[in-house]
Give the backbone structure.
Amino acid sequence: MLDLLLWIVLTLIGLLSAGHALLHKRDPRAALGWIVLCLLFPGAGPAFYWLLGVNRIRTRARNWQRRRYWSESDQGARRAEMARMPPFGAENFASLVSLADAVTRRYLLPGNRVTPLHNGEEAYPAMLEAIAAAECSICLSTYIFDTDATGRRFADALRAAAERGLDVRVLVDALGERYSLPTIGRLLRGGPVRLARFLPPSLTRRGVHLNLRNHRKLLVIDDKLGFTGGMNLGDRHLAERDAPRRVVDIHFRLEGPIVGQMREAFLEDWHFATGEPLPEVSWPEPVEGGAAFCRGISAGPNEDFQKLSWLVLGALNCARRRICIMTPYFIPDGALIAALNAAALRGVKVDIILPRKNNLPYVKWATSAYLWEVLQHGTRIYYQPPPFVHSKMLLVDGCYALLGSANLDPRSLRLNFEFNVEVYDPELASGLEGHFKAVRAGSHRVTLADVDGRSLPVKLRDAAAKLFSPYL
């Protein structure tokens, strides 16, 4: 009798959990997977669902994210003023600005300067120099903070700044922190640096999440200078080393009003991780000679819109001449494939550079299973030779650039917290396109014959990996 009662209770819990997944999961594949798990494995299935499958982040974040930074009248006046400036007078870019205005929480700000920094050899000295010269505050957010030689240099610089009396805050992802032992938290413990972890696993508060990771890379100095891009902190990004795990990447130094948006994004994450109230953010003045219009884009599972997906699709749809994409992880959904194909078919030159050697082989396998869907309609794919290339950029028509931490895969576009910057600046776009062309010249162009010529075992392996692509 007791066994029957327990079975009934577990069955009811499974049905309730399956119903919750049916109502609240946006992706039907994810909903179906959780429903099957909850119904086939009474007890264990619902337990996994409530621990790992429920997003408790969105509700908590909505109150402070509903703040608006402009009124409708202000927005209309700003658009009218921008319509008189190149390139915003062009219909395609005016539409892209309108889209971003609608789905983001921040202005597109003039008067910025954006400087590319290639690999750790350029980025790390500039970042350490900025930390050493800081006068008031340092805010650092990163996914991985290794405790190798590079990581310890940053730890020492941050500790020295805090000992000078600066407000030094470090936010590290609780999962990414464990890529290196001892962890950076242990290394900085007991010192003057204020350190917080993003979403540490918990059975009582926010649950245990393998997804929902903070993948943002932000360094903000004195509300005046910022760094963002794709680089974590560690020796792996020193690309000139003769090391098998070295990584090629691009980071960016930013000056101007955009730095205020970067600090705001950091403080929102800090508030989420610590519960501390959000302070006022000061807004830097435009930089003399700064020609870049910039907007910071905070994206993640706490937002009301799938911002990055919509902005990427909007940028692809507004292209008239050329699209240049560089990404380490390329797992496109149906909408992205359709946008790329539509652009290529209307005569836009679409080039995508991917790493030939990937640090996650199963991602490379899934990518290979998708390539024929874009190659057959005119998109050109190139494999960049090793070492592994972690660089990310989307360039449109020699004017627009989307830069930051996000990859073109479901993890970045749906599951992780990302920070990107959209930039309207022909000079920056031209320089990045020059880098893109130089890389393309030394890369291998992938053809349909290459994809079709894979052996049957390889095709089966790649197709099997593709089945799991929503979770990669």
Remarks:
- The chain is about 45% helix and 20% strand.
- The first strand starts at residue 109 and ends at 118.
- The chain has a mean pLDDT of 88.
- The radius of gyration is 23 Å.
